[in-house]
Design brief:
Layout: H1 2-12, H2 26-34, H3 37-48, H4 66-83, E1 89-97, E2 107-116, E3 125-132, H5 150-167, E4 175-181, H6 189-200, E5 204-211, E6 218-219, E7 224-225, E8 229-233, H7 243-252, H8 259-274, E9 279-283, H9 295-300, E10 305-310, E11 323-325, E12 328-330, H10 339-358, E13 364-369, E14 377-382, E15 391-398, E16 406-410, E17 414-417, E18 424-431, E19 444-446
Parallel strand pairs: 3-4, 3-5, 5-10, 8-9, 13-19
Antiparallel strand pairs: 1-2, 2-4, 6-7, 8-10, 11-12, 13-14, 14-17, 15-16, 15-18
């Protein structure tokens, strides 16, 4: 059946544009359709019911404050674990945040993790998806005022929880961690701790996604109303790039093919493949001007990290005490969240993670031959470790294109193309019989 699927896939199209549907896997499609706008709304409203989730707020009350919120999130993930037969491992990721600019006294903080281990013992990849469950009022140090945080960032937390609910019912090659992050508003505390833990524990983090402010569809001042566009932010150059890597990048012009950009490009291709009426906008910067998110500490550790955020923001809803002034409502209340839009964003996240987690790993030692003067392109690579691919795609795009424009299927570990390596960018990705593709690997020059 897998061979038949591959033949059908090849018959449909041997060369494809990056946004043209080649084949949707019914397994992923069923998961995507299981993502519920109603369930997302219930999660957001439940988180708002704790009145404030400021990271400095009450930890003892059962109904109010950050402590009650994290206990509820943990219990919710544990209910999903039961549905998975206990495969989803739920834990507090606990640490003490020392005194800092927004932390007046040493404070115990807790990320909440749902860890879904992979089933392939050779596949040590880890993917992390997060939203931050803490909230804030106008004054970030105000731990008592009503701070609903419905969009910022109960919406992103709801995405992570909804993916945990749906995906924990199934098995994947590699590990997926669903994370409700703490301390974002106090200085990315939870993300910094988890990124450090990942590095010290030598997790092979192949990608990290933070969903932060993903529920609003109205642009303040511009009066834009857009329920189909979503931004994916990605940095060009890793902060841990070595001088040797910088020299290679400069020589081949691959500044838009770093790990984060590759991840963002993959999300656009796969997200639009599975989610109708969705335009994934690639934003070529790490984040918005003078702002940051929970992907930043992972980026600083050299890990492929991207941020998902709504296209147009309403700043009357962000970092504001709930009030009415001059007939204008301020505050991040749940009635201002577009839950069908959050559902689309969650489905995009799920399709991306599922396709990656089911795919073979990336091909190894991908190279482009440069020994002779030619208008052709000769590529060579090695099969990845773990699951053996059914074949490979050689991806091609013009140097000015943000997405891959053509793909050529090959069964071998080499390809010869009648296109000049000097005029296009090329990459190679592994693919299985059901069309699950790995990340694209950019070739290095070789003689």
């Amino acid at each position: 059946m897998r061979l038949v699927n591959l033949i059908a896939l090849l018959f449909i199209c041997k060369t494809i544009s990056a946004q043209e549907i080649v084949k949707t896997d019914s397994f992923i499609k069923n998961m995507v359709e299981d993502v519920s706008a109603a369930k997302i709304e219930n999660t957001v409203r439940k988180l708002v019911s704790f009145q404030t989730r400021n990271s400095l707020s009450d930890t003892l009350s059962a109904t109010t404050g950050i402590g009650a919120a994290r206990n509820w999130i943990k219990a919710e993930l544990e209910s999903y674990s039961k549905q998975s037969g206990g495969r989803l491992k739920v834990e507090f990721d606990t640490f003490t945040q020392p005194v800092g600019a927004r932390v007046p006294t040493p404070t115990v903080m807790k990320n909440v993790l749902g860890i879904l281990p992979g089933i392939d013992p050779v596949d040590d990849r880890v993917f992390i998806i997060s939203g931050h469950y803490d909230s804030r009022a106008s004054d970030v140090m105000d731990a008592k005022s009503f701070a609903p945080g419905a969009n910022d960032d109960a919406s992103g937390t709801a995405v992570a929880l909804e993916l945990a609910r749906v995906m924990s019912k199934y098995k994947f090659n590699c590990t997926i961690i669903f994370c409700a992050m703490v301390g974002e508003e106090q200085g990315l505390n939870g993300a910094a701790h988890l990124a450090k833990r990942a590095k010290e524990s030598k997790w092979n983090v192949a990608g990290m996604i933070t969903n932060d402010i993903v529920g609003n569809t109205y642009g303040m001042e511009t009066d834009l109303k857009d329920n189909r566009s979503v931004r994916v932010f990605s940095e060009a150059i890793s902060p841990v790039e070595t001088s040797q890597e910088a020299s290679l990048r400069s020589s081949i012009g691959s500044e838009n093919d770093g790990a984060a950009r590759t991840f963002a490009r993959y999300m656009k291709e796969v997200g639009e493949r599975y989610v109708d009426q969705l335009d994934v906008k690639l934003i070529y910067r790490k984040d918005r001007y003078l702002r940051g998110g929970d992907h930043t500490p992972f980026s600083q550790e050299g890990l492929a990290s991207i941020r998902v955020t709504e296209m147009n923001e309403n700043f009357q809803r962000q970092h504001q005490n709930v009030r009415t002034e001059n007939g204008i409502d301020f505050g991040d209340l749940p009635e201002f969240v577009d839950y069908n839009y959050v559902q689309k964003v969650a489905r995009m996240n799920l399709a991306t993670l599922a396709n990656l987690a089911l795919a073979p790993r990336e091909p190894l030692n991908v190279s482009v031959l440069t020994s002779g003067l030619t208008n052709k392109t000769e590529l060579r690579w090695e099969a990845p470790k773990g699951e053996k691919p059914m074949g490979y795609y050689v991806a091609m795009r013009e140097t000015t294109s943000p997405v891959w424009q053509k793909k050529f299927y090959v069964a071998d570990t080499k390809a010869s193309l009648n296109y000049s390596k000097d005029n296009y960018f090329f990459g190679v990705q592994a693919v299985d019989a059901d069309g699950h593709e790995s990340f694209v690997v950019i070739p290095k020059p070789a003689r």
